[in-house]
Design goal:
Rossmann fold; 14 strands; binds S-adenosylmethionine; FAM86 N-terminal domain-containing protein; Methyltransf_16
Length: 404
Amino acid sequence: MEGHGFDDSSVRLVSAFMAMEPSDSLISHARVCGGGLITEQVQEFIWDHCLSKAAGLYAPYLKNFLKKLIIEVELEHGCVLDNLYELYAHYMTSIKDNSLVQRDAKIRKRISFLFPDGYSQLQSCLHSRVLVFPLQCSLNMLEGDTGCSIWPSSLFLSELILSYPELFSNKSCFEIGSGVGLVGLCLAHVKASKVILSDGDLSTLANMKTNLELNHLNVELEKPERNKNLNMVKCMHLPWESASESQLQDVMPDIVLGADVIYDPVCLPHLVRVIGILLSHKKSYSCRQVASCEGAGSSNKYENGELHYTNQPNFEDLVDVSAVAGTVINNHGSGGDGPKEAPLAYIAGVVRNVETFNHFLSLAYQAKLDIVDLTDSLKPVNLLPYMHSYNQASIRLLRITFNP
Ligand SMILES: C[S@@+](CC[C@H](N)C(=O)[O-])C[C@H]1O[C@@H](n2cnc3c(N)ncnc32)[C@H](O)[C@@H]1O
């Protein structure tokens, strides 16, 4: 923090502030910057690089953070900057009661991916060590059928895409249940050849389009061919229940993605049907090099540090896999001119309810979908080290292929 320069700790503090991380988390970042104390220098940094640049940020959030900051400095008998007292007094008079704040209000966050030194693979597609996406979200997690909030698995898939860009660049990618659209922004960033985002909820879709526009991506609803050269992301209204086979077969993606889509037991049969159709289209493909597919019908087994489900799987198998050290999968993403590989899906999720998750696995098995748990073998780089509210380790990553 010497001379207000940006070292790692100050970048984390600013990133956490812009992502609207909880006040306690901001305070702990501030302490790291000040070597344990929230010094005047740290307060000046917060003023210059956070609060004075926070125009448009959600005022009750700023008020709560200021209150916490002032209390913490006073508790350690430090000197609080006048600017901070004055701004807090302003919020005290302008925001009378937090409980009256509209719960359906939309807020703007900025999600920053911080790239560590020495990741030549990552930096080859980056001009800077920080990649920032502004995103409009809802305060209410349930708005837009849950799709207007950022869920942890989309942070995970975003880290995965940015960590292994070669798996996605030049690939046609289709996301189901896209929510705010962060995964699509990352796919466009690593130059997927085509990005189609979808959601079953219309208000979520409208919010997603706002986010694509905020990030200067062209949104196209129909006829993408006309603007082939533009950095294009297509949005599609796709409720799984009513998605027709022909509608899905037209898409023919190389890669299907889904983040936090396994949670509603009622939707699962429809979700599995959609994934099945998307993965079973008949583009001219070579055989995918997934050795375990050959042994379908035998027992579940570990290969190359991955768990392959060839019998009807359940969650206990998922738990077991965490004991097995994985190796990174590198059998796809060639991007060359050779025969294309069969489509595959990356589905990331937090297992909130074991029964629901087992039900998904069993439906997938019945639909001839092979599932490989990649959680331990394809780990993304931690690009969100400032985000204490997000725990990469809580997410499971499944790779799904169709095995006729
Ligand atoms: C928990 S949110 C996850 C959103 C986003 N993928 C993320 O991780 O931030 C689930 C998403 O799936 C969508 N969804 C839920 N049920 C659906 C259905 N039956 N058909 C299509 N989309 C659905 C919701 O609208 C929402 O956007």
